[in-house]
Amino acid sequence: MDNKILDTINQMVAVQGGVAEWTSDRSLEVLLPQKIARALEVGELVTFTTNADTNGSSSYFVTYNSDILERFEGLLSNSGYVASYGIKYDGYLKQSGFEKLVTDTLCPQNGLIRVQNAVPAITPYVLFNVNYTAEASEKRLGMVSFWLNGITGVTGVDLGDALLWTVDRRSSPSIEDAQAINYPELLQIGTQHSEQLIERELIPWRQKNQRQLQRDEKRITEYYQDIIGEIKAKIKKRKLEGEEKEGEKNRINATKLELKRKIKDLYERSSIEVTAQLHSALIVWLQTVHINCQLIRKKQKRDVVAVWNPYHKQVEPLRCSKSNNPVKSFYLSDESAKIICPTVWSD
User: Fold this and answer.
1) Once rounded to an integer, what is the mean pLDDT over residues 301-324?
2) Domain check: are 266 and 278 in the same one?
3) Of 143, 135, 2, nearest to 64 (Cα)?
4) Is the torsion defined by CA of 343, 192, 146, 14 positive or negative?
């Protein structure tokens, strides 16, 4: 449903342990934990709506300037929460027969990919919850969430139905048994991806602000140009000379300076300042198959790991070495057979 305010509330409720259900495209019914409800100063069962004609004491009308978003922001400021658990997979994990699946899924446009072997392995998947605040003439609060493969660094991966069966959950693998996670690299990739997602969410607002800026700039420019035109007409009509003419010219210059100041102020007020932070993360350890492959470009070779997820029976994309974007069709660099996505390659 295309309702950014309620979409944001829906995400924040989920992060705080609540349950939300859409009752219409403009109303969201929410069941909150008692502690969260007290912090938000609402009942445990409440309906948030963007419809001004609310009925019933349990309905709460929300806009981007509502106090409730400020209270949510206060909850989100308590960042840094990280949870982790593993999921048991009772099915059979095959270790062969991936050649066709890999070559059909991962396609180097100027080289080759060869499957060497495949082994069952535990893969960490990290869910990033990043909250942000965007401020211009008004203030907006939002959150973006996405999964990231902790081995390959691929963002936006799909876990299939792995999270559906809570009975299959178990404690996280020990540090010795689990694959090492490169936290600084994953944080850098996650930060970059969250910036892209946040910017995507803000595009409609930026476009709206730009249209308003153009209208205001045109209106103010025409107003001050009319004043300058009247002054020039006065000079011509009265045939002013000497100090009187010089005084009117000074008025024209002062008017031009005032116009520049007004336009500068317009641009400053319409610019959107965005701040974001990692609110929380969830690490889920899944039993997968790591397919060891070799990329070949002329005389250059590079070993990579492709991940097969048994929960959706697909080989996941690889990652562009320059943009960090997930790719299935890609190019290989001449120097070291690095993976490069088509958009970067064409540049």
Assistant:
1) 94
2) no
3) 135
4) negative
